[in-house]
Design brief:
85 residues, four-stranded antiparallel β-sheet, single chain, SH3 type barrels, two-stranded antiparallel ribbon, alpha+beta
Length: 85
Amino acid sequence: MAALSAREWIDVKGRKMQADFESFDPDANLVTLRKLGKVHKITLDQFNEKDVTYVKRRHARLSQKTPGATLDLGCVLKPSKSMLE
């Protein structure tokens, strides 16, 4: 498991929250954050421009390392051979 580090997230209304980034699902347009052990799923359009850019860049960077991988807690998982058969 990757070490998590909380960052400040700001929504389009200027509200702030300290939380850890867990994942981004581009198909559902959902960002998963964790704050004090509780999971929050928030649509990307709820974040300010700076946070939208952060999520997209992080997702692109991790996706380039292993195309088609699942993003989870900032880790890239490779499918097993049996999953591909």
